[in-house]
Amino acid sequence: GLMRAMFLGLIGERTKRAKDLLSWGLRPNPIHRESRLAFDDVAVTLENETNLVSSTALYPTMNACENLAAAAEVIALALTQGQIRTSATAALCRIAMESSAKTIWLISETDTEERIRRCYGFLKAERGRQEEFERLEAEALAARTDPLAEVDLTNFEKRRERVAARQAKIAALSAEHITGPSGGPLKLVEGAEIWMDEQLPRKADAELDAVMHPRSAKSFYSLGSGFVHGFKWLMGYVLNDEELDDTPLLAITLDSFGNAIRMTEAAVSLYEAQSVGPRPDPKRARNYPDGVADAVEVLAPQYRFAEKRTPTELGEGHRGSGA
């Protein structure tokens, strides 16, 4: 009926908004030499780590933009075939949320030492999954007898040695120099939502708000686990067995995009706000939507230093953050 038509129209609007972030996700702007991220990178004292803060915070947001754009493309194609693809769309949106929440956790804090501690903790927390992959990959390579096996094994060992060198430096840091994420991905999503509500409050959507209340980020993230892991329990919450009506699935799709777009735009805005220099630069690409540009204007002043200091001076003032 009318509500279904309205939901389809709103989904169309959101797919465009989602894809508008892909340009930045594929080619994020370089950080300005006088930006907050540049200052923090120099403040890192681990040897040969020249961009630890900026690079650690960047990858999750790029991953979020990629998955969000993919969700938009999946639903757009499905609709041309008279289908919805709610499960695939929700799973991709959930990935975008989790990735964005990681960036927000890493660099929403304003204190340089704490930001560096979080980067160390984030990288250390990844190590368990990384070691599991390394063990399984090494076993698979050792079992191979094909002509490419030796070359693949050599390349793998080179990469593993490079990664292990960084991890060894982080492992050598004392506990007070590391702040790890706690509580799992859901906790990160919840924290990101709290930060967004404080810094970038959700804008009312009069048309949508009149017919449905948007599901919170943590609630959708929890519901979305059913799509990601193939759990049947969620079906009782998204379908009405007594009616052949896909409107509830369209509502879930709107919740998916609503939460994922908001969190990804927030992460992009936060990163971009800390990548810009202290003065406007007309040459800097505006490869992101107007809403992100507005958020950058709001956030940037919070991450500028009150007094002008060079990156070298900042690094000398934070030697306690290193080994």
What would you say this structure looks like, in words?
The chain is mainly alpha-helical. Helix content is 67%, strand content 0%. It contains 14 helices and no strands. The longest helix is centred in the middle third of the chain and has 32 residues, at 112-143. The chain is globular.
Rg over CA atoms, rounded to whole Å, is: 22 Å
Helix segment tally: 14
Q: Note the beta-strand portion.
A: under 5%
Could you describe the largest sheet, including whether it forms a barrel? Answer: none
Keywords:
globular, mainly alpha, 323 residues, disordered C terminus
Secondary-structure map with pairings?
Elements: H1 2-19, H2 22-26, H3 36-43, H4 52-80, H5 86-107, H6 112-143, H7 149-171, H8 184-199, H9 206-209, H10 217-229, H11 235-238, H12 247-273, H13 290-299, H14 311-316
Q: How would you concisely characterize the structure shown here?
A:
The protein is mainly α. The chain has 14 helices and no strands.
